[in-house]
């Protein structure tokens, strides 16, 4: 029996549906294209993002928990990804001396070489597939929109914890 106190769904109108579907289709195709463009470097987008985060970190190392949060991966998914990347020789794990349960992900020299080699192609791909289609105003508006959405999603994550 339906709950009489339940609120009806707030269905999307045609403008909202068009915006939503355009975003979904474009974002999926964009990620597929960016991933494909890294094939020549034997890197996936997930690998590239992890290496990029590590390349910017002090000593090119980060706590696994922090890396998972920044890379928007669950800890178990990051752990699996790091195992694959360890086999490739791009990263290694180091135990955290101050926390017996904690580990660092550390970029190796081979990982550094991999991201240095892939970065120019990746940046060119991002530019031609995304940035070159936007004027400065578009870029600012998109940055504001997605920053607002990200903040809202992060707030929801915190509220759930």
Please provide a brief summary of the model:
The protein has 161 residues and is mostly helical. The chain has six helices and three strands.
Structural notes for this entry:
Helix 1 (14-37) crosses helix 5 and helix 2 (45-56) crosses helix 5 (109-129). With 161 residues, this protein is mainly α. It has a domain at 39-120: Winged helix-like DNA-binding domain superfamily/Winged helix DNA-binding domain (Arc Repressor Mutant, subunit A). It has helices spanning 14-37, 45-56, 64-70, 75-88, 109-129, 136-160; strands at 61-63, 91-96, 99-107. The chain is globular and about 55 Å long. The longest helix is centred in the C-terminal third of the chain and has 25 residues, at 136-160. Strands 1-3-2 form a three-stranded antiparallel β-sheet.
End-to-end separation: 32 Å
> Class of the domain at 39-120, according to the CATH hierarchy?
Mainly Alpha
Supply the helix-strand structural class: mainly alpha
Q: How many strands in all? A: 3
Uncertain residue segments = none
Percent strand: 5-15%
The CATH superfamily name of the domain at 39-120 is Winged helix-like DNA-binding domain superfamily/Winged helix DNA-binding domain
Order of strands, main sheet, comes to 1-3-2
The CATH topology of the domain at 39-120 is given as: Arc Repressor Mutant, subunit A
Radius of gyration: 20 Å
Please summarize the sheet with the most strands.
3 strands, antiparallel
Question: What's the rounded overall pLDDT mean?
Answer: 91
Order of helices and strands: HHEHHEEHH
How many helical elements? 6
* Shape call: globular
CATH-level-2 architecture of the domain at 39-120: Orthogonal Bundle
